[in-house]
Amino acid sequence: MTATLIWILLALLAIGMYLSWTAGRLDRLHTRIDAARAALDAQLLRRASVTQELASSGVLDPAASIVLYEAAHAARQAEEEHREVAESELSAALRAVFSDPAQVEAVRAVPGGEEATTELGQAVRRVPMARRFHNDAVRAARALRRHRKVRWFRLAGHAPFPLAVELDDEPPAALAERPVG
After folding, report:
1. Rounded to an integer, what distance in angstroms lies between the CA atom of residue 21 and that of residue 27?
2. pLDDT 10s digit of each residue in the chain, 181 long?
3. 88 in helix, strand or coil?
4. Nearest to 73, CA basis, from 92, 90, 57, 59
5. What residues contact residue 95 under an 8 Å CB cut-off, 6+ apart?
6. CB neighbours of 19 closer than 8 A, spacing ≥ 6?
7. How far apart are CA 122 and CA 101, in angstroms?
8. How far apart are the C-alpha atoms of 65 and 9, rounded to whole Å?
9. Angle at the Cα of 91 (from 174 to 103), degrees rounded to 5?
10. Torsion over CA of 173, 126, 37 and 45, rounded to 10 degrees?
């Protein structure tokens, strides 16, 4: 009788430790999602800021400046529920303005244009990477949260179900290429 009780207590202890480890893992994934979301927000803000600086610097033609400035301003001021659409529109505006490599070269030729296009090129390359890191963390957390043990024992607590960020972040080909030399 005593040996059976000891085995039952050991089994319950092992199950409790496993559930605690799983809950800790889920908590670390949620922390990783929060950090990745903050990094993504920072990269999106940087891209919009650099775009606004470039649009107001006078190195672009007036029509391109207006299109880029308005798209960047809308992306920076968008409410959370409309942010993905505004960021996608900024990506489309960047592709429209910088679709022609000759346009990029013309901007680079203007005083201050080389630095501006380099900084914008770095910003548009970092956004897809940050989004990919965020969505990978979301995918891992979702996979863990789908397990029965997580649902049955409510190991996720009151944490909201993680949502992936889906936006058009394809950079203009002429800006996305790293400058040679």
Report:
1. 10
2. 899 999 999 999 999 999 999 999 999 999 999 999 999 999 999 999 999 999 998 888 899 999 999 999 999 999 999 999 999 999 999 999 998 888 888 888 888 888 989 999 999 999 999 999 999 999 999 999 999 999 999 998 888 999 999 999 999 988 877 554 3
3. helix
4. 90
5. 170, 171, 172
6. 149, 153, 155
7. 16
8. 71
9. 30
10. -80
Q: DSSP assignment of 18-42, as one string?
A: HHHHHHHHHHHHHHHHHHHHHHHHH
Distances (CA, A) of 73 to 45, 58, 92, 166, 169: 10, 17, 14, 20, 17
CA–CA separation, 101 and 64 (whole Å): 15
Whether pTM > 0.85 for this model: the answer is yes
Q: Which residue in this structure is represented by tokens 């039952």? A: 8
Q: Which amino acid is at 163?
A: L
Cβ(50)–Cβ(123) under 8 Å? yes
Question: Which amino acid is it at 32?
Answer: R
